[in-house]
Amino acid sequence: MKLSQQVIYQIYPKSFYDSDGDGIGDLRGIISKIDYLKQLNIDMIWFNPFFVSPQNDNGYDIADYYRIDPTFGTMADFEELVATLKAAGIGVMLDMVFNHTSTQHEWFQKALAGDETYQKFYYLRPAKADGSLPTNWESKFGGPALGPIGDTGLYYLHLYDPTQADLDWHNPAVREACAEVVNFWRDKGVQGFRFDVINVTGKSEQLVDAPTGVASKTLYTDTPIVHDYLKELNEASFGQDPDSITVGEMSSTTIKNSIGYTKPSNHELSMVFNFHHLKTDYVDGRKWSRMAFDFPRLKQLLDGWAAGMDAGGGWQALFWNNHDQPRALNRFGDAGQYRVKSAEMLATVIHLMRGTPFIYMGEEIGMVDPYYDSMADYADIEALNAYRALVRSGYSHKDAFTIVRTKARDNSRTPMQWDATPKAGFTTGRPWLRPTNQQTINVADELDHGEIFNYYQQLIHLRKTMPIIADGTYKTWRLDDQQVFGYWRQLGEQQLLVLNNFYPTATTVKLPEAMVNAEVLLSNYPDVVVQADLQLQPYQSVALLLN
Question: Is 142 a residue whose pLDDT tops 90?
Fold first, then answer.
């Protein structure tokens, strides 16, 4: 099956299903739920990291790329998982974290001990002449991005947590080591790879200060050498598999660069994630702030990326949710009165668009953010740091908590809600994060008499069976509409108009004359009457097909 026809499901293993009662999800838990995944009819599963890790950043601080963390199971469990998924027609995508390793990784420990070979694996730099840090770069998790490495007198770069040391990709041995990791998992039957923050690997060999008023990320993000690194990695590993599927997580990227990363003739990646549309509820670009999403800006970004990638021959991963984002229903939909309809509307927006849709676990049943009432409920280092930083900057504890509650990554990391019991059917033990709304939102209830799961099944079926959805071009539809985000798809003489009402009030759309004769391909409301003045109900999506 072509990439354009496939749909990928994301599992955060720690939170999917716990088979042994320790309160943490595991590989055997995932194996036990494969029938559910097959029922949804997805093609591949992207698994967040389950490698050996101290878990300072929920597994994105890898201490051994070749071993399964015992918390999640064994290599035998993994091999059984791959085989069982393959029998169900589902592929495996693993998360490769190659910008940095854990400081507990053998490579870093050897560097710490003075091994010059491994010191060259990392960005180790002396202090400036005045004794200050080698650069003024800021960590993405707050604070300086450089810290002392033991008593060597040197400082190491960590763009993220201090326990995540950045690898120096200028060193050919680093690039070879990363390719070897990919090839190890290819030999285990893995054909999909997601590369974490891969476009920040292009730091200069000479680290220099960011000028006053300039964010340090502009010095190392999306630099031209990243394309060279990806071409080399492609040739040395996954590019040898004609059916490989790869996606790059691209921090603060551009359409131009993303076309380069994904254009098939460039031999880099299959597709990219970009996050611009998920920053439309940030005040002045600041994540830890609170505002309603900017709908005109959201439309502009969704449309601009879709049109730009189409025009340039690039390909994008389409998504609203992942393990690093609060639930989209709380941000762009209505998590209360119109939870079901807004969940279906948001799904329609991305599943009928040009690109490859990703579904984050629980999205297909309309899961929403937990309602926590204390910082003690949160586990994520980023949220805890942000709370302290907000309080230090003058926010009251109450206001700081309100902001964190709307933006914390833990919002999407709560356990998958399998049933209405107090532990959500996730574990017999104490869940590592507390579920709060499983009484009304859970798999058992959804499969018995819900409609969101069935609607996702319809969207997935359409992508697999209708070439206009998989392969059609993308074109803008009226960006000036104050409530509706719409777009055209076209293949040959066939046209598809997709209209999505983002608000809890009805609105009327004036259809192009030809579309009055169109058929309703899909709607999340019944009994749609196609007429010149088409009324859309709250959070309604309608897809009109003209042959």
Answer: no
